[in-house]
Amino acid sequence: AVAAAAAGGLRRAGWRLWRGRAAARCQLCPPQRALQASALLRRSSDQQQKEPFASSSQQQFDSHPTHHQPEQEAQGPRPSYTGQGGQESEDYESEEQLQHRILAAALDFVPEHGWTAEAIAEGAKSLGLSVAAAGMFHSDGSELVLHFVAECNTRLAELLEQEQKRVQLGEAEKKPTDQFLREAVEARLRMLIPYIEKWPQALSILLLPHNIPSSLNLLSTMIDDILHYAGDQSTDFNWYTRRAVLTGIYNTTELVMMQDSSPDFEDTWRFLENRVTDAMNMKDTAQQVQSTGEAVVQGLMGAAVTVSNTDTCRVVR
Amino acid sequence: AAAGLCPCRVLLSRRGGALRVLRGSMQGLAAGPETHFGFQTVTEAERREKIYQVFESVAKKYDIMNDSMTLGIHRVWKDILMHKMNPSPGTLLLDVAGGTGDIAFRFLNYVRSVRERQLQLKLRRHQNLSWQEISESYQEDKFNSLGDSQVVVCDINKEMLKVGKQKAQHLGYSEGLSWVLGNAEELPFDDDKFDVYTIAFGIRNVTRIDLALQEAYRVLKPGGRFLCLEFSHVSNPLLSRLYDLYSFQVIPVLGEVIAGDWKSYQYLVESIRRFPPQEELKAMIEDAGFFKVDYQNLNSGIVAIHSGFKL
């Protein structure tokens, strides 16, 4: 038994080196180990194609009496991303794709169960998997929220991209900056409406210490996207100020939306409009303040010089 | 051929029944491969036989010995396993080598409390119901305190199951619990049946671990989870030395004093040393077809929880 284990171990080690995979924990491994076994993950039309592969790998291993198990990581004829079977790789799903599918299905159950492991379990059940599949995720529902936020950001980016294309093709007018920002933030916040009741819970989850790096990352990427499509090409300190201002606008509007009970969130959009206008005016105000400040300083300096001259003159006289 | 005859002779000399002799002779050829029993080398059939007898003799004192050997920490380990599993009501659990029912009882407690919380939340939301509707909702939930969760305790040893059943009766567990006599290498269940498969401190005593893992894979539903709680390899050298000292000097003495059985506990500590370490067990689980296989060390490696999913 020890020899078999050693032989198996050597084979596995060699296989891993060959596939360039670190002998570390599974989570760090690239998603190349496609999920063969479950009938769920196979498209039925290609099941016949898979049988010969499975049986051929079986034959390979029957000749090794010490190796009790046909390794699922079959060598050679395995139609995965590395193999020759280019078309077969689409039929297999990696673990991450399956996790995405479960989370996507779980979103339907959020209004009822909140952003919790229960919603994920219901999502898994709706896909035909066991409820225990929710154990793949953190038990506080973090991955569900992060998945949703990432998806919303992707959708927003797509919307902005389409908008830009239309402008380039001349189908639409280029919007002034404040209107553009306003509509982009509104579009993004509207994606929260189906889940608005449980959104405070989601916000609290996003603020958990172990989630802060991911949530900050998602937030900053989204703000970056919006400003990029708004045509921001600054390369000086304005880059930071603009993003900080827009992040502030977005966060405050989100919070206002949480406790807004007006029809179709009119109050929220009005609040947003006011904040964007303030931000636009802030630039002019800053310049005004600066020039006024300069004028005041010059006045003071002039007064000081006059006073000192007068005193000198008096002394001289 | 000599190896084939050997187990038969060994079996005959024991106080075995006629059935056992027959089984031995049929398995004579299958008993060939050598394996370990503690630090001894025996055939597979011998090993199965010896382990059966070990647990037959310790069954009554099993729980007391667990508490005294681990100073009660095994309860914490099992609780951690349950929290990691985080079962939702409606889960079907198969606890293999679950003899005296520790994991099963914890599972039932856990789902019961989760279910209570679920019902409370549901009631809180239904603030505007009429009295009729409220009384109806109470009635339908009265018979559902476990939320259709069930646990099947499977063990190869009759004595351990007997002790488990007595404990269940004594502690008042009746719903959602069933006891099945079965071999982990050849489970008497259909395919794709269970949500979670656990084996706590049992896989060490299985002779063909790969077969047990294959069976686990077979009986789990797609998406099901495999959880294994077992003594494992301590990497910290200082702790390892203290642990060895404690294991070999203290535990067999405790075994003799409390259970009157030095040899069984000598076997126990030896079998822990012979068990594959964390990474190797992880590789074996992956070989059986599980995905997202991972392990968590408890007490820096004295115990490890391995987890895998059938995807």
Number of helices of chain A: 11
* Sheet of most strands of chain B: 7 strands, mixed
CATH topology of the domain at 142-295 in chain A: Tetracycline Repressor, domain 2
Tell me, what is the CATH class of the domain at 72-232 and 275-310 in chain B? Alpha Beta
**What class, by secondary structure content of chain B?**
alpha/beta
* Mean pLDDT level of chain B: 84
The count of β-strands of chain A is 0
SSE map:
The complex is a heterodimer of chains A (317) and B (311).
Chain A: H1 2-18, H2 47-62, H3 95-106, H4 110-113, H5 117-126, H6 142-168, H7 177-190, H8 199-206, H9 212-229, H10 238-258, H11 266-316
Chain B: H1 2-13, H2 18-26, E1 34-37, E2 40-43, H3 44-58, H4 62-70, H5 73-85, E3 92-96, H6 102-125, H7 131-142, E4 150-155, H8 158-171, E5 177-181, E6 194-200, H9 209-219, E7 220-231, H10 237-259, H11 262-274, H12 278-287, E8 291-298, E9 303-309
Parallel strand pairs in B: 3-4, 3-6, 4-5, 6-7
Antiparallel strand pairs in B: 1-2, 7-9, 8-9
What descriptive keywords fit this protein?
A: 317 residues, mainly alpha, Tetracycline Repressor, domain 2, 11 helices, B: 311 residues, alpha/beta, Rossmann fold, seven-stranded mixed β-sheet, two-stranded antiparallel sheet, 12 helices, globular, disordered N terminus, Ubiq_biosynth_COQ9 (chain A), COQ9_C (chain A), lipid-binding (chain A)
